[in-house]
Amino acid sequence: MKKLTDKELEIMNVLWDNGALSMRDIIENIMEPKPHFNTVATLVRRLETHGMITHQALGARFFLYEAAMTREKYAEAMNRESVNRFFHGSYMNFISQLVQEEEISVDELKELIKMVEG
Question: Does the global pTM surpass 0.90?
């Protein structure tokens, strides 16, 4: 799966947070400084080409765009890719790295164990 650029991710976050939107609504929800309409249109077309966005025609020149993939599915794919790329597919090595860097506490690890034992 293609890793999104910061601007592509910003558009996806707008769609994930708001549901289906027109191009103007997407631009309205993007943080300042607002990019030009053509820039956003190019990014939206690119996202659609990569299967991240779909559109529905409501008129001759009016479309609603929506995310074709959930935020959670995208995050899952990016996490899997990172684990495969940097930890040879080992989630154990990934978690070990988090523990070594003190990014995850013992209490959080215990909570994870409870989730797994379920």
Answer: no
Q: Does residue 14 contact residue 53 with C-beta atoms inside 8 Å? A: no
The DSSP output letter for 88 is T
Measured distance CA(67)–CA(6) in Å, rounded? 16
pLDDT profile of the chain (118 residues), mean per 10: 93 98 96 92 96 94 95 95 94 89 88 89
Domain range for 99: 88-118
Same domain, 34 and 63: yes
Strand 63-67 to 53-57 pairing: antiparallel
Beta-carbon count within 10 A of 25 CB: 16
Residue 8 and residue 67: Cα distance in Å, rounded?
Answer: 12
Cβ contact 104:98 at 8 Å: yes
41 in a structural domain: yes
- Which residues, 6+ apart, have CB-to-CB distance to 77 below 8 Å? 1
Q: Residue 36 corresponds to which tokens in the numbers above?
A: 């030009």
